[in-house]
Amino acid sequence: MRKAIKYSLIAVIAIAALLLCAGYYMLGYALKPEELVSRSRNIESSLEYMRQTYPEVGHWIDSLQAAEALHDLYIENDEGTPLHALYVPAADSTNHTAVIVHGYTDNSIRMMMIGYLYNRQLGYNILLPDLYGHGLSGGTEVQMGWKDRLDVLRWTEEANHLFGGNTEMVVHGISMGAATTMCVSGEVQQGIYQQPFIKCFVEDCGYTSAWDEFKGELKNQFGLPAFPLLYVASTLCHIEYGWSFQEASPLEQVKKCTLPMLFIHGDADTFVPTWMVHPLYEAKPAPKELWIVPGAEHAVAYKENTEAYTRKVRDFVGTYIH
């Protein structure tokens, strides 16, 4: 009997140790991917990517740099971490402003195609943050849009001050940036957070929650169910970084948002599956619009449908920003 108890305890300890190791591995795999250094931190590579992928936007960026019209801005978040953003004033003075939020392991440069849409095509001031852990901002891990929402709220205040103090503003994000945008939207309730200048939101291919996204990737990449590994990793995330995968829920945030939101999602998206946009859209109180982009995979709706995308965004934001 004693031997049986002893062996059972050893087995339990071994399984617990294995789960702990696997949980830490998953946490690092998800929140500290190699691409944070090789892609997000590599500014020259990001500039070259834009020149090759969006030649017109690449020429525009080069012209902004030559004219010293592409500016850097640094602030600190509430924990004292330095955060970086790029900004470009409109060619003609305006109070129309867009804060544009990049995705997972991207950076502000890799969102300049949306900056081009707003600044060059629509005549807006633009500000593009590097999220925590990305680009030229401090931090070592991805926050999946959750704690990022508080940083982006700070950036909207900075943008409002930077561009005259009486802006009318849209927050527009893609992928994890869209999740961040939706998380921001739940905090902006009729000026409670002193952001009455935010008039509307555009989210492009955002996920319902970090939990749902990681659950799908755990199954797709490793063939594993959520239990027990995802539960362990989420608990470790809460211990290490102060938030859990379940807590990081754009779905819960949009339920609280009464400002207008445009939802965009490709119908061929498998990375953030298309099905996710439907509960998000249904949960969001009106006013809202939904555009399912035929044939578009993840985060390529603008690239493959530039004119239609520009028209949709122009018409939507133009309804609420005058």
Automatic annotation (TrEMBL):
<keyword id="KW-0378">Hydrolase</keyword>
<dbReference type="InterPro" id="IPR000073">
    <property type="entry name" value="AB_hydrolase_1"/>
</dbReference>
<protein>
    <submittedName>
        <fullName>Alpha/beta hydrolase</fullName>
    </submittedName>
</protein>
<dbReference type="GO" id="GO:0016787">
    <property type="term" value="F:hydrolase activity"/>
</dbReference>
<dbReference type="Pfam" id="PF12697">
    <property type="entry name" value="Abhydrolase_6"/>
</dbReference>
<feature type="domain" description="AB hydrolase-1">
    <location>
        <begin position="99"/>
        <end position="302"/>
    </location>
</feature>
<keyword id="KW-1133">Transmembrane helix</keyword>
<feature type="transmembrane region" description="Helical">
    <location>
        <begin position="7"/>
        <end position="31"/>
    </location>
</feature>
<keyword id="KW-0472">Membrane</keyword>
<dbReference type="InterPro" id="IPR052920">
    <property type="entry name" value="DNA-binding_regulatory"/>
</dbReference>
<dbReference type="InterPro" id="IPR029058">
    <property type="entry name" value="AB_hydrolase_fold"/>
</dbReference>
<keyword id="KW-0812">Transmembrane</keyword>
